[in-house]
Amino acid sequence: MRQKVAIIGTGLIGGSLGLAMKQAKLDLEIVGHDRNGDAAGLAKKRGAVDKTEWNLHNAVEGAALVIMAIPVMAIKATLEAIASTVRPGAIITDTASTKYQVIRWAEDILPRGVHFIGGHPVAGQMGSGINDASATFFNNRIYCLMPARTASQQSLETMINLVQTIGAHPFFLDPLEHDAFVAAMSHLPFIAATALVRMTTQSPSWNELRRLAGIDFENASAAVAADPDTYNDICQTNKEAILRWIDEYMTRLAEMRNLVEQGGADLRAAFSAAQEERARWMATRDEVMSELPPLPSAEGTAGQFRQMLLGGLARERPLPGEKKSK
């Protein structure tokens, strides 16, 4: 009997997960649900899902695994909607880039015996929507996993196997730590780029300025091409961490302003130091990935994943330090 996996949100991430699972030949029934019927239909046409279901409850009913590849502010309402429908022992996961608030929602809403594992694939591919989805989207990428306190060890191991099967590296960290880190490395660059674009395009001199916009402006403003709704949601669910990094960024800008005003060797030293740090980071990016443990064979992890979904969910083992419920 094939196990059912429900993907809620069949865009870039949800579609890529479906395609990656299909490529791994996991022998699953993958059901797609999307508020955008065209996106769901295209996901089926591309082979990311076996069938689509417009009714959310029908999509998740009986599913061993439910993947929410949706905007972060839609997660709470979705959890509330499916809490009474998901089967006991099911695993629920998400793909949002903020985690602390999402995990708190899951712990408050989901019934005991339904296991939530927060997920965040750190993929570097540009694009949006099912048209840009790819079976190799997660290859050699970091995939953050953060279990809720009520999740079982078995459910975490199942997600680890899935992540490895699609070619990604599981990475574990505390949800608050995760949110602080991504605020610096992902959320702040978007906000800084937004400020740059607003400053220049709203200038009375924009008509002249735009004639001089070259590759430097294009690169510095590229982040604003991301979905505005996504980042609006991110700022609502990761406000404190983002504000701390904005304050630090403003301090650094003030330092740079003083150096520009003063001129001299210190200004050039700051430029050189930043150039060297970035070059060091660029040169060691592949080394950082190579330091991770090698992935087991996709065939082996695929088999383990199938077995865990088939029989492991009924054996609820608590995480270390958690007492097993009676």
Describe it.
With 326 residues, the chain is of the alpha/beta class. It has two domains: 4-174 and 294-314, NAD(P)-binding Rossmann-like Domain (Rossmann fold), CATH 3.40.50.720; 177-290, 6-phosphogluconate dehydrogenase C-terminal fold. The protein contains 13 helices and eight strands. The two termini are 29 Å apart. 37% of the residues are buried.
Helix-strand blueprint:
Layout: E1 4-8, H1 12-23, E2 29-33, H2 37-46, E3 51-52, H3 56-60, E4 65-68, H4 75-82, E5 91-94, H5 100-109, E6 115-122, E7 142-147, H6 153-165, E8 169-172, H7 175-201, H8 206-209, H9 215-221, H10 228-237, H11 239-262, H12 265-290, H13 298-311
Parallel strand pairs: 1-2, 1-4, 2-3, 4-5, 5-6, 7-8
Antiparallel strand pairs: 6-7
Helix pairs in contact: 4-5, 6-13, 7-11
Short overview:
52% of the residues lie in helices and 12% in strands.
- CATH topology tier name of the largest domain: Rossmann fold
Query: Got a strand count?
Result: 8
Report the sheet-strand fraction: 5-15%
Radius of gyration: 22 Å
Helix content: 40-55%
Q: Provide a count of the helices.
A: 13
H/E series: EHEHEHEHEHEEHEHHHHHHH
Quickly give the CATH architecture of the largest domain: 3-Layer(aba) Sandwich
The N- and C-terminal alpha carbons lie at a distance of 29 Å
Shape: elongated
Which structural class is indicated by helix and strand composition?
A: alpha/beta
Biggest sheet layout: 8 strands, mixed
Strand order of the largest sheet: 3-2-1-4-5-6-7-8
Q: Please tell me the total number of domains.
A: 2
Summed over residues and divided by their number, the pLDDT gives a mean of: 90
CATH homologous superfamily descriptor of the largest domain: NAD(P)-binding Rossmann-like Domain
CATH class of the largest domain: Alpha Beta
Low-confidence stretches: 313-326
